[in-house]
Amino acid sequence: MPNPLRDESPVIYCLESVWRHDEDDKDLRSRDSTVEPLLQFLEVNGYWDYRHRDVATRGELKYYLANEWCRCSYGSILYVCTHGSPGSITLSDQQHIDFEELALDLADACEGCHVHLGGCAVLNIEASKLESFKRATGAAVVSGFKKDNIGWTDLKLPGVLAELMLFSALSGVNYSDGRKYGRRLKSIKEKMEERFEDCDFAYI
Q1: If you ran DSSP here, which 8-state letter would residue 67 be given?
Q2: Measured distance CA(103)–CA(108) in Å, rounded
Q3: Distance CA 10, CA 6 (A)
Q4: Is 116 within 8 Å of 81 (Cβ atoms)?
């Protein structure tokens, strides 16, 4: 039975981490170093409504997942926008969360939804671990990148264009139509391989 507490319309729900680019940068993320302009573009042009939250600790991550993400409509995209490494996301200098921990935080919270992990090389892991993460979260789809240095911090290329292509192409596609959604993802991957081969986009 559908959860009556969920919102009616799908959204992109973005959790964005703190960015620091070098040891001399002691400030938190600067205003121009955020993916929110990408989300604003998608909303203004009628692709997706969105919600954007800053997270720097696992406690903040758990709070937003438990109190806001859980209410997002089926068909929403959870966009985890962080630095990363194979099988791990980085929220801040001292906050690294591996796939097993993230799966616990998202346990059964992603039914009928798409989880996109935007950090560099996060999906560069064994297929069995990715399968386990998908099963634990209940996600319809998990996607991300296998390569390092995809370069979307500060809205640099090619990562921002790759994710713009991904999110715009998925607008209005119903996850319950598995074949259609699978064809759409396959088409997106082929186009990314042509235009943004450095990203190595992957999904399950």
Answers
A1: H
A2: 9
A3: 10
A4: no
The predicted model scores a pTM of: 0.89
Q: What is the pLDDT of residue 147?
A: 86
CB atoms within 10 A of CB 92: 18
User: Is 119 in contact with 83 (CB distance < 8 Å)?
Assistant: yes
Nearest to 36 by CA among 47, 46, 50: 50
Q: Residue 72 carries which DSSP code?
A: S
pLDDT score, position 92: 81
Token digits of residue 53: 């939250």
Of the pLDDT bands very low, low, confident and very high (cuts 50, 70, 90), residue 153 is: very low
What's the Rg (C-alpha) of the chain? 16
Q: Which amino acid is at 189?
A: K
C-beta atoms surrounding 48 within 10 Å: 21
Is the CB of residue 96 less than 8 Å from the CB of residue 122?
no
User: How far from chain centre, in Å, is Cα 87?
Assistant: 14
Tokens 């640099």 — which residue? 156
Please tell me the predicted confidence (pLDDT) of residue 149: 67
- Half-sphere exposure (CA, 13 Å, Cβ side) for 175? 17
- pLDDT tens column, 117-143: 998 899 999 999 999 999 999 999 999
